[in-house]
Design goal:
- The complex is a heterodimer.
- Chain A is mainly alpha-helical.
- Chain A has four helices and no strands.
- In chain A, helix 1 crosses helix 2 and helix 3 packs antiparallel against helix 4.
- The longest helix of chain A is centred in the middle third of the chain and has 56 residues.
- The radius of gyration of chain A is 40 Å and the shape is rod-shaped.
- The two termini of chain A are 59 Å apart.
- The relative contact order of chain A is 0.06.
- In chain B, 73% of the residues lie in helices and 0% in strands.
- Chain B has ten helices and no strands.
- The longest helix of chain B is centred in the C-terminal third of the chain and has 26 residues.
- The chains are: A mainly alpha, B mainly alpha.
- Chains A and B meet through helix 1, helix 2 and helix 3 of A and helix 2, helix 3, helix 6, helix 7 and helix 8 of B.
């Protein structure tokens, strides 16, 4: 679209001035050109438009607030999953690096004369760890996590 | 001296702060304040009440989502109107509805018929048939031209404000205003000639 300079063409300039003067109803112009544009200006101030629905503002605000709440809810769940996932990873790494020391600690228990119960103790610890880890992973994938809502 | 613009800017800041703090009723107040402007822009472009309602809601949902990004570089009404305009433009583009006609500078002179004598404004204002015919002619104008005429005359926005909303140059806005109004006057001349 070309830039429009109403003053380039004298005829267009006169027409533009008449159009702009017509916007002011208090102007005392009497030429028919300006008066016709005044009628057009009045019509343009009252165009055929569909009315705004009743309670549009209230309904729109409610919809916006619900959308915002849903977005925050999703964010909270993902943060919970991320945190629990991080804890699980740290737990596994700890087990890998320090598990040997823990078993060594269990060995010292054996030396004090509880040898008979040693395998039971070791496997109990392993079993408890497996159950805990399974429940944790199950909760993560089901989306329950740890609820912090009131 | 406290200018009207400064007062309006402070009102915008207060309203935006209240909405961002999630004050009860704040966003509804914002919607109520600007729903008229949005509705005019969108309804003028799509001319369908159901589409207008949906697009208007979409506009305010987008405003609610992105209000924290608003930096007060323009008036709040201009920012909201820009969102409304761009959402509606995308809607029309998806539906492949044309929004401008090719510019033809010669058309300006074709529209400039002689004004004639003795026009009775009050009698013409009362002429329902003439008013209806002009409204029909307004509906036939290209989408952008029709929208700009509404923003200028009904919503009383300035040419720079309309340029910000539509991302069109000020000269282009003037051209649309000129051509649209000249076309309506040419139609009026033809109708008055028929009536006489």
């Amino acid at each position: 679209m070309n830039t429009f300079d109403p003053f380039e063409n004298e005829r267009i300039r006169r027409e533009w001035i008449a159009q702009e003067k017509s916007c002011r109803d208090d102007d005392d112009a009497h030429d028919s050109r300006t008066l016709k544009y005044r009628l057009i200006s009045r019509m343009l101030r009252d165009p055929p438009l569909d009315p705004i629905p009743f309670k549009f503002a209230a309904q729109t605000a409610a919809r916006a607030e619900l959308a915002a709440e849903l977005e925050n809810d999703t964010l909270e769940r993902w943060l919970e999953r991320g945190l629990l996932g991080a804890l699980a990873v740290v737990g596994c790494i700890s087990l890998l690096y320090f598990g040997g020391n823990w078993l060594g600690g269990l060995d010292s228990l054996r030396s004090t004369g509880v040898q008979a119960f040693e395998p039971f103790r070791v496997w109990s610890i392993v079993a408890a760890g497996c159950v805990f880890f399974s429940k944790l992973v199950g909760n993560l994938f089901s989306g329950k996590g740890v609820s912090m809502r009131r | 001296m406290y200018s009207k613009e400064a007062s309006s800017g402070d009102d915008d800041r207060t309203l935006v702060d209240r909405v961002l703090r999630r004050a009860p009723g704040a966003f509804e107040a914002l919607v109520r304040q600007y729903q008229g402007l949005c509705w005019h822009i969108i309804n003028r472009m799509v001319r369908n009440p159901d589409d207008t309602r949906e697009l208007c809601q979409e506009t305010f949902l987008r405003v609610h989502l992105r209000l924290h990004q608003y930096r007060f570089e323009s008036a709040l009404k201009t920012w909201i109107a820009q969102v409304a305009y761009s959402i509606t433009l995308r809607h029309l583009e998806r539906k492949r509805i044309p929004i401008v006609e090719p510019d033809n500078i010669e058309m300006h002179d074709d529209l400039l018929c002689d004004a004639g004598d003795d026009f009775d404004l009050e009698a013409a204002s009362a002429d329902e048939e003439l008013a209806a015919a002009l409204r029909r002619e307004l509906e036939k104008l290209p989408t952008v031209q029709r929208t700009i005429l509404t923003l200028y005359h009904l919503d009383e926005l300035t040419i720079p404000e309309i340029a910000d909303i539509t991302s069109l140059a000020a000269g282009t806005i003037k051209s649309h205003l000129f051509r649209g109004r000249a076309r309506l006057r040419a139609k009026m001349e033809a109708l008055l000639g028929e009536i006489a």
